[in-house]
Amino acid sequence: MVETRFKKRVIFLIAYLIFAILPVYWMVNMSFKTNEEILSVFSLWPRDFTLEHYKTILTDESWYSGYINSMIYVAMNTVMSLSVALPAAYAFSRYRFLGDKHVFFWLLTNRMTPPAVFLLPFFQLYTTLGLMDTHIAVALAHLLFNVPLAVWILEGFMSGVPREIDETAYIDGYSFPRFFVTIFIPLIKSGVGVAAFFCFMFSWVELLMARTLTSVDAKPIVATMTRTVSASGMDWGVLAAAGVLTIVPGAIVIWFVRHYIAKGFAMGRV
Amino acid sequence: MKPINQKAWFLILPVVLCVAFSAILPLMTVVNYSVQDIISPDRRVFVGTEWFKAVMRDEDLHGALLRQITFSLAVLAVQIPLGIALALSMPAKGWQSSAVLVAVAISLLIPWNVVGTIWQIYGRADIGLMGYTLAALGIEYSYTGNATHAWLTVLLMDVWHWTPLVALLCFAGLRAIPDAYYQAASIDGASKFAVFRYIQLPKLRGVLVIAVLLRFMDSFMIYTEPFVLTGGGPGNATTFLSQYLTQKAVGQFDLGPAAAFSLIYFLIILVLSFILYNWMQRVGTADKSNAEGRHG
Number of residue pairs across A and B with CB atoms under 8 Å? Predict the structure, then answer.
């Protein structure tokens, strides 16, 4: 009985993984093909194997600096989002105060506006502040959708931790900051891991705001990518190669936070 | 019951300031545009609610709204159960766990325009794996010619792209359940289903609320992927709300009506999310009191 259930799970998981991986495989496959081969024949693996597309990206500064710029503002954004969201999520999960429910829902409403709406006002705002074409401008703009997300995710995890733990710690003489950092955050590791990954992810793939607020010095990779569409048609191979390279930093991030996500609740050790 | 503590405001103040800085100013600008006819930057006429009335009467908008609601409900109906099932079947320990986590997360990390481009090739019957396979199976599949196929392809692409978000949230939620709960269940001799229904599902409520709302809002604003894949066609089978908005704003370059449209759009999402949120809260608390009744 347990045996068949276990097998069903594994079969389901493998089926999903195949469904998930095939389009990615097709992208990797495309990135090693010449443009002629991509558009003319159906081939399961490249016939004229070429590294030309990767060479284009890795040797041209306007291409690879896009990756560096993206990483800088995404890292800034993730750190800022989590550091303001952690105390706020704690307040929402532990206390009642004036307007708590309203503020909590209002935060999320900031994710409900089509981003195109914000472009013109943001452009005017950051030009006035003299922050155009800087990493910090994009990092700040992305707080708009990442902070609410982080607060909501973290609040969900914090509410799952029994309040007795806080009370015991205070009785034991812990101050709030010490309790929060040394006891509480380790308890919701999986939540912090997921929140960090999602902040990274949403900031990494956001195109409209990042493109509007930058021109040269902080131009992100997603904006550079739109170059592959030109009058002479589409450079499919370079786009696929750039797509493959955009997965790499995120895959590294999830590799690092995987323990946080997978370990979870450490009740026994408290 | 949570204690009342007004000092908690100090903890949420940084968040409120951060978000207000980015949100309130732009929103006021949009409200400002929506009540004016901007002929040129120096010539503006106050038109009151005229744009709002015009947008409400727009027949094409009603069509796009209906398509949008259908699509978002389909997204939720597929992705939430699939995401939960996936989270339950993901291994929790060892190298398999890490490998599966990375494999599942990959589709989230691809920029949205690339997602559309890949599926564009992937679905083509002559050069794409999916299109080719379907054609080999004897199915006349064409996402550019057949409205149903186009709609289903956009849905499939969205399922591929975003189910991992639900799965990762639920996976982390499952890991946050203390072992003691499972031990208690096995002492009681609870079945797998009972464990899911009375331990895992209630404990996942927090992450499920955010997963449902996120998927609802984001699918309601879906733009890049269908735009790249089908361009809204064939006909207007895959023209969703935000694409219709962009057509209006960019195509006719009318800031006033576009701003009024965005505000109505925002209000629709707000109201629907609010209904969804309150419904989930009610279901959740009803569940809790049921469970407490059972034990008491």
Answer: 293
